[in-house]
Write a structure and sequence with these properties.
50% of the residues lie in helices and 15% in strands. It is of the alpha/beta class. The longest helix has 23 residues. The structure holds NADPH dihydro-nicotinamide-adenine-dinucleotide phosphate and (2Z)-2-iminopentanedioic acid.
């Protein structure tokens, strides 16, 4: 069986690499899933015969387009826009939009591929997709961002809709960008529908959508800790990033009695051994969301903190690590340092933040490791709840949404335990989430025929 599994994985990956040249992040995401699923697929010949996994690794549709816009100096700028419509077997394509200079087709395909399984795990009727642009919002004026979003939407509006494809935010896309895109969509289509999630609360947004990813990640970490009779209370937590997910993960850890000692951005990290309390978090939120400044300024404002230029926060002693910035931001060496420092739990707020070497170490050492597609699914889950509210034309309260979010995160955790518990009792959340997310999509695809 072991031989059969490794041959299956090898052949599958050889085909993926030859069909998708120069997309390393896509290979990485697919490889992890194929490794998890190979034994399951080999035991189920119908899955093999119907080439379900092969079909899942081929986007249903990719849209790539020119995004021309005029900057504040009157110069013409040209970016590239993308939407990867990966899988619609269980619902309309659903997934965020990323604006970052690094965006390319391979990165969006990895994100869309992960999104299909993540969305299935939420138990809501959501297919998977992802989009974005190599537009860099840093240093751009509000007007430039608006003109860019409008130009982006001038093309994308034809391909999305409340029953077709519902985008949301991701790196570089928050309330400001979603609102500009929604405004332009509404103008072009002359319809007010729930075609975006993460909208403002006054125009169809769901309470708790901004908080959902970070809160959900901490709820998931808390569920994992419970299996060891542990909790967040009194724990020291290292968080990376300082954007949407990192901010609300910090807020929830504080609420649950933990101490957050790090945050970061693409230039470096801050380490505050006294802890980032509510007041300091409020400062970070204004700094990042309104002033659009750098995390370095935290260390200038609070003398208790050190700024670690060009470093990730993983060398700091902590009990729990929550990577909440970007892909491949935690490598094997850093994973080893975390383990040596006594870290017992890693829950991923970001998508694929741990490299394969880091993941292998977490699994070999049997610490609690919650991969992104399970641990950060709270964001898209509340997006799904926003779609429901939009269809019903009503708005739930924050408490109602929070209750649903907590229950969804608990269910995802239980599904991982069901499908990922090994003979020795260790819960492999990687296998658990991949198998559990896959089953529903695979069944739907088999039922719908070769389409
Ligand atoms: P934001 O744009 O709000 O914040 C991103 C943060 O990560 C910033 O602090 C940013 O620093 C840092 N960052 C971005 N790129 C890099 C990089 N290449 N190297 C180092 N740091 C980087 O995005 P979000 O908080 O929304 O997203 C963070 C992660 O969470 C992403 O992986 C995203 O895919 C994932 N995610 C987001 C969800 C959501 O609902 N928003 C849902 C599920 C997952 P800087 O300011 O320097 O750019
Ligand atoms: O990666 C993700 O799950 C997101 N960026 C959120 C997607 C969504 O549709 O809310």
């Amino acid at each position: 069986m072991e031989n059969q599994v490794s041959r299956f994985v090898e052949n599958f990956m050889a085909e993926i690499k030859s069909r998708n040249p120069a997309e390393p992040e896509f290979y990485q995401a697919v490889h992890e899933v194929v490794e998890s699923l190979a034994p399951f697929i080999i035991e189920n010949p119908a899955l093999m015969k119907n080439k379900i996994l092969e079909r899942m690794a081929e986007p249903e549709r990719v849209i790539m387009f020119r995004v021309p816009w005029v900057d504040d100096n009157g110069d013409v700028q040209i970016n590239r826009g993308f939407r990867v419509q990966m899988n619609s077997a269980i619902g309309p394509y659903k997934g965020g939009i990323r604006f970052h200079a690094s965006v390319n087709l391979g990165i969006l395909k990895f994100l869309a591929f992960e999104q299909v399984l993540k969305n299935s795990l939420t138990s809501l009727p959501l297919g998977g997709g992802k989009g974005g642009s190599d537009f860099n919002p840093k240093g751009k004026s509000d007007n430039e961002v608006m003109r860019f979003c409008q130009s982006f939407m001038n093309e994308l509006h034809r391909h999305i809709g409340p029953n077709t494809d519902v985008p949301a935010g991701d790196i570089g896309v928050g309330a400001r960008e979603v609102s500009f895109m929604f405004g332009q969509y509404k103008k072009l289509r002359n319809e007010f529908t729930g075609t975006f999630t993460g909208k403002g609360l006054d125009f169809g947004g769901s309470p708790l959508r901004p908080e959902a990813t970070g809160y959900g990640t901490v709820y998931f970490a808390s569920e994992m800790l419970k299996t060891k009779k542990e909790s967040i209370k009194g724990k020291t937590v290292a968080i990376s990033g300082s954007g949407n997910v990192a901010q609300y993960a910090t807020q929830k850890v504080l609420e649950m009695g933990g101490k957050v000692v790090t945050l970061s951005d693409s230039n470096g990290s801050i380490y505050d051994p006294e802890g980032i309390d509510e007041e300091k978090l409020e400062y970070v939120m204004v700094l990042k969301n309104a002033v659009r400044g750098r995390i370095k300024e935290y260390a200038e404002k609070y003398p208790s903190a050190q700024y670690l230029e060009g470093e990730r926060p993983w060398s700091v002693k902590c009990d729990i690590a929550l990577p909440c910035a970007t892909q491949n931001e935690l490598n094997g060496d850093q994973a080893q340092i975390l383990i040596d420092n006594g870290c017992i739990c890693v829950a991923e707020g970001a998508n694929m933040p741990s490299t394969p070497e880091a993941v292998k170490l977490f699994l070999d050492k049997k610490i609690l490791y919650g991969p992104g597609k399970a641990a950060n699914a709270g964001g898209v889950a509340v997006s799904g709840l926003e779609m429901t509210q939009n269809s019903m034309r009503l708005q739930w309260t924050s408490d109602e949404v929070d209750e649903k979010l907590q229950s969804i995160m608990k269910n995802i955790h239980a599904a991982c335990v069901k499908h990922g518990t090994q003979e020795d009792g260790f819960v492999n959340y990687v296998n658990g989430s991949n198998v559990s997310g896959f089953i529903k999509v695979a069944n739907a695809m088999m039922a719908q025929g070769v389409v």
